[in-house]
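Hmm, what's this shape?
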Amino acid sequence: MPANYFLRLEYLDELIRKKATGSPKQLAKKFDVSERTIYDYINILRELDAEIFYCSICESYMYKKHGLIDFKFRPNN
């Protein structure tokens, strides 16, 4: 799995936290992927226990609870 895969998920998380994803079609264009891929990314975040919903009024995906996704290695000291 390429490293940019995780970067895309982190960027998606950032957009969701900012309530700035746009519609699934707009988001697919931002990521240069298909809408199906966007739905797959959203489902991956949901599998990681992120409660995500789409707000048609705000035209953005949003979290029900505050939080963030972090895929970086953190060494123990």
